[in-house]
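Here's what a typical entry looks like (Ribose-5-phosphate isomerase A):
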Amino acid sequence: MNQDEMKRAAAEAAIAHIPEDCIVGVGTGSTANYFIDALAKIKGRIVGAVSSSEASVARLKGHGIAVFDLNGIDALPVYVDGADEINHQLQMIKGGGAALTREKIVAAVAERFVCIADESKYVSVLGQFPLPVEVIPMARSYVARELVKLGGHPAYREGVVTDNGNVILDVHGLSITEATKLETEINQIVGVVTNGIFARRRADVLLLGTRDGVKTYS
Ligand code: 5RP
């Protein structure tokens, strides 16, 4: 199996975690796209979806899946999304697709977070993948200086504007051993909208696509 096949296998395995007649939280990225395609095949069994990005909204609607506004939803049984890295405690780095803030919001509402990923994403220590931080545009340089004080090397992701109209700094050189602490610290910097550490709200289940099939961790 190549990487795409492992992503697809993990995404298809997530269908077993979707309750009947519910609204499903849907993430963003290539693995989430495989999940949306799999969801389309059972769309008669669900009410619809809440999405974490405009890109996923377009793909869901393209499949004829109803997309709801999160503000109109009281409860969300499950959120399914990929990750850029996930450790053995099921803490993640997300935001490679610049959708981290909406992903974190939908994940916060969801009762269960099912992470779908290929085996390359499973790591002992987070931080090899540069940590995305969504920033209000006028605060970009200030936030970058503050991130340097925390030991990181921020790089401006040029040409990218998030669905919320903000910019992304990718922070290189972090070895994230205290994920919850660093998540909180970075979010305290004025001008940061959110950062891509998902530790305060980690995944409940990981479906990992591997050469030996899909492995489940919880
Ligand atoms: C988007 C994300 C994605 O989940 C993450 O980048 C993984 O993407 P892919 O499934 O394409 O490897 O956080 O903001």
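The two ends are 24 Å apart (CA to CA).

More examples are in the samples folder.
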